[in-house]
Each structure stands twice: as structure tokens, then as C-alpha cells.
Write a structure and sequence with these properties.
The chain has 131 residues and is mainly alpha-helical. It is built from 7 helices and no strands.
Length: 131
């Protein structure tokens, strides 16, 4: 039934009636719900992008909304004043990469550095809703 739902969503995306991100979010929600109901991870689809056979194509071009530049600067300054340079660096990295703070905290920095140098982009994997 889950595989049939993924096929249905793939068709809706291909018709242009649903964004890839929305379809992936729906499959991720199904996985989380099934895990909660079943009590384990045995009843689920593989990663939503694999189940759909479609990947997101949008690349963030700006920082997420709600990040006032002045307030952001005040936070970084306060962290530095309190000898929290690592935390300040993570906050700055998240801002520069357009990532959620959790994604930046969990990021595999050597891998991201290699990807940025080799491919000119990074693939954010850890800390995202889909896992």
C-alpha cells in the first residue's frame, strides 16, 4: 500500500499538480506515522526521494526568512563575548549556507568542504526532516 501511495504521488508530481518537496514531505510523514503506530522501523518506505524516483531541484539562494540581520549580528557578538566561538561559527555557517541550525550542527564538515570544492554545491543530509 505504501509503495502504491509513492507511485500515486510520483504521478501527481509529474502532472505538475504537486511539488516534489510536498510529495517527499508526505512520504516522510507516512514513515514517521507508521513507525509510531507499529513501534519500530520495519514498516516504511525507503527514503522519500528514492521511493518517488524524483529529487528536489531547488537550491536555496538566500537565507531563510525570519533572520533579521541586526538581531543575527547581536546573537553572534553575544556568543563571542561569552567565549562561545564554536557556537558562533556554527550560527555563521548555518546563515551562510542557508541551512537550519540543526543541519549545521550535525553537518559532516570535511564532506561538505570536499563537495563545495569539487562540485560547487553541498548536499545537506544530516539534521533534515527526512533523515
Amino acid at each position: 500500500m505504501l509503495a502504491d501511495y509513492a507511485v500515486y504521488l510520483r504521478d501527481v508530481v509529474r502532472r505538475g499538480d504537486l511539488a516534489v518537496s510536498t510529495a517527499q514531505n508526505r512520504l516522510s510523514s507516512v514513515n514517521k506515522t507508521m513507525a509510531a503506530l507499529h513501534g519500530d522501523q520495519y514498516v516504511k518506505l525507503p527514503s522519500p526521494s528514492k521511493a518517488l524516483g524524483i529529487h528536489r531541484t531547488a537550491v536555496r539562494q538566500s537565507a531563510p526568512q525570519g533572520q533579521d540581520r541586526e538581531q543575527f549580528k547581536q546573537i553572534v557578538d553575544a556568543l563571542c563575548r561569552n567565549n562561545q566561538q564554536r557556537a558562533a561559527a556554527i550560527v555563521l555557517f548555518a546563515r551562510a549556507a542557508g541551512m537550519r541550525l540543526r543541519e549545521a550542527i550535525l553537518a559532516d564538515l570535511p564532506r561538505l568542504s570536499r563537495e563545495a570544492n569539487d562540485l560547487g554545491m553541498i548536499n545537506i543530509q544530516d539534521g533534515t526532516k527526512g533523515g
